[in-house]
Specification:
The protein has about 230 residues and is α/β, with parallel strands linked by helices. It contains eight helices and six strands. Helix 5 links the parallel strand 4 and strand 5.
């Protein structure tokens, strides 16, 4: 595969991060609190699959691993759509090897709606960009998308899942994705390590897992306020 939603967003934060993911992933350091947050997000996403009732999940792993078998998931997704499955979770799509798996794809009278699930109390622009990437890939696969939602965490356990309509904003990122996806594909394949000076991109919108490597072994807690 070329770029996924995650690798595209990481490349937009810093192309060097994207390059390191591909060529030197062993340098990655994920703080325990970040890993816990990621795990909690996965659990929240699993629970959200049932918000519209019965569903089919497309996730398939490579034998003996927890690595998604993307090719098998693409085939399973096409079969589910051909059968008219109403709610498809982790629906997989690929365009020129760029890939996404929509958390929830819900059939409508005219096509499908996308639901991107985030274990957070409010919407961020980064979430909308995530949804915009999925809209870009799926529509380029000739699938008609009506509305785009982000499902966030409700204020209490009585209403844990709150879909928020971000259709206009997410669709508005189509050109932005198209303007950058091909260049990022090229940059991640460069034979020599990309040279970028440390800066604001090391921490925004997310703390980079290669912070110590790019800052000469210093951990984020040593950086002070500068």
């Amino acid at each position: 595969m070329a770029l996924t939603k995650t690798s595209f967003m990481r490349g937009m934060q810093c192309p060097k991060m994207l390059w390191l993911d591909k060529h030197k992933p062993s340098l990655k350091v994920i703080p325990p609190e970040i890993q816990a947050r990621l795990d909690a997000g996965n659990e929240f996403g699993d629970l959200a699959m049932g918000i519209f009732g019965p569903y089919e999940e497309m996730t398939i792993y490579l034998p003996g691993t927890t690595v998604p078998d993307k090719k098998a998931m693409l085939t399973r997704t096409q079969d589910a759509m051909a059968r008219g499955v109403e709610v498809i979770c982790e629906a997989a799509f690929s365009n020129y090897n760029n890939y996404c798996a929509a958390d929830i794809l819900r059939k409508t009278e005219t096509g499908y709606d996308i639901y991107e699930v985030k274990n957070a109390p409010e919407i961020s622009e980064q979430f909308i960009k995530d949804a915009g990437f999925q809209y870009y890939i799926i529509t380029r696969c000739k699938v008609r998308i009506g509305r785009v939602f982000i499902v966030i965490h409700g204020s209490d356990e009585e209403s844990p899942f709150v879909p928020v309509d971000v259709t206009a904003q997410a669709k508005g990122y189509y050109k932005w994705v198209n303007d950058h996806i091909w260049e990022l594909n090229r940059r991640q394949k460069e034979p020599e390590e990309i040279v970028i000076e440390p800066g604001e991109q090391c921490l925004k919108p997310y703390e980079c897992w290669y912070y110590g490597y790019c800052h000469g072994g210093k951990q984020t807690e040593e950086r002070g306020d500068d």
